[in-house]
């Protein structure tokens, strides 16, 4: 997932980018409001972390502009500010902010809020119970998978991983994010466990696991579900 951080403090930008990238997110940076809006126009983020006090446009103005655009109206925004007064928070929420973090804060706190906001955003746009991609059909309610009309038996964890990836096609997810979203939060596992489950999943759903059609590896970034699989051969 791609997160745009907008802040004019270089040290804070570096700190936040480091922690978000370490958690498996792709990160963009902007130091002014106008730069942020220009970047969003070129590449839409999954979430924006937006400082209120910027050298050109105030963060509230950037947020207002994002909410005025059809393409970015639903993009989650977390506001950062040194101002913790209630009226400022109310302004942010009335403009459509999803969360509000007061400086100083720990990177761990922000990461937890990022995860919570992204989860809420995914829930709001959740797809229907049946997902179809060519010959592959996934019933997320019945926990059943068919390919070419034949049912494929999957272990529960394999199904959760497949259902999450297929519910967010064309998005690249790192191991840490997949562990967050598709594994039981009470179970502590090594990130490489994701690779093992992907191999098992490919062996079950792919006609040729050595040339995966649906679950693609994005080198250095993670995995992506391809909603329009290339034909074998």
Blueprint (SSEs and pairs):
Layout: E1 2-6, H1 10-22, E2 26-30, H2 33-42, E3 47-51, H3 59-68, E4 77-81, H4 86-94, E5 99-102, H5 107-124, E6 130-133, E7 136-139, E8 144-147, E9 150-152, H6 156-167, E10 172-173, H7 175-182, H8 193-205, E11 215-218, E12 222-225
Parallel strand pairs: 1-2, 1-3, 3-4, 4-5
Antiparallel strand pairs: 6-7, 7-8, 8-9, 10-12, 11-12
Helix pairs in contact: 1-5, 2-3, 6-8
Provide the helix percentage: 25-40%
Structural class: alpha/beta
Q: Please write the CATH class name of the largest domain.
A: Alpha Beta
Strand-and-helix sequence, N→C? Answer: EHEHEHEHEHEEEEHEHHEE
Summed up, the helix count is 8
Cα gyration radius (Å):
20 Å
Largest sheet: 5 strands, parallel
Return the domain count.
Answer: 2
Unreliable runs: none
Provide the CATH architecture of the largest domain. 3-Layer(aba) Sandwich
Beta strand count: 12
CATH topology of the largest domain: Rossmann fold
Reading side by side through the largest sheet, how are the strands ordered? Answer: 2-1-3-4-5
């Amino acid at each position: 997932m791609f997160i745009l951080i907008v802040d004019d403090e270089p040290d804070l930008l570096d700190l936040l980018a480091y922690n978000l990238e370490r958690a498996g997110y792709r990160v963009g940076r902007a130091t002014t409001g106008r730069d942020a809006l220009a970047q969003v126009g070129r590449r839409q983020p999954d979430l924006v972390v937006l400082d209120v006090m910027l050298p050109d446009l105030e963060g509230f103005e950037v947020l207002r502009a994002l909410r005025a655009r059809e393409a970015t109206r639903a993009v989650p925004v977390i506001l950062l500010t040194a101002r913790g007064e209630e009226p400022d928070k109310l302004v942010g929420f009335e403009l459509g902010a999803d969360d509000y973090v007061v400086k100083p804060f720990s990177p761990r706190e922000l990461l937890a809020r990022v995860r919570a906001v992204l989860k809420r955003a995914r829930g709001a746009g959740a797809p229907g119970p049946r997902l179809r991609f060519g010959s592959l059909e996934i019933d997320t309610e019945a926990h059943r998978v068919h390919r070419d009309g034949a049912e494929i038996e999957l272990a529960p964890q394999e199904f959760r991983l497949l259902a999450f990836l297929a519910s967010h096609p064309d998005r690249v997810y790192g191991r840490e994010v997949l562990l967050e979203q598709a594994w039981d939060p009470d179970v502590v596992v090594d990130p490489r466990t994701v690779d093992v489950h992907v191999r098992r999943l490919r062996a079950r759903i792919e006609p040729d696991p050595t040339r995966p059609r649906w679950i693609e590896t994005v080198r250095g970034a993670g995995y992506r579900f391809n909603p329009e699989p290339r034909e074998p051969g």
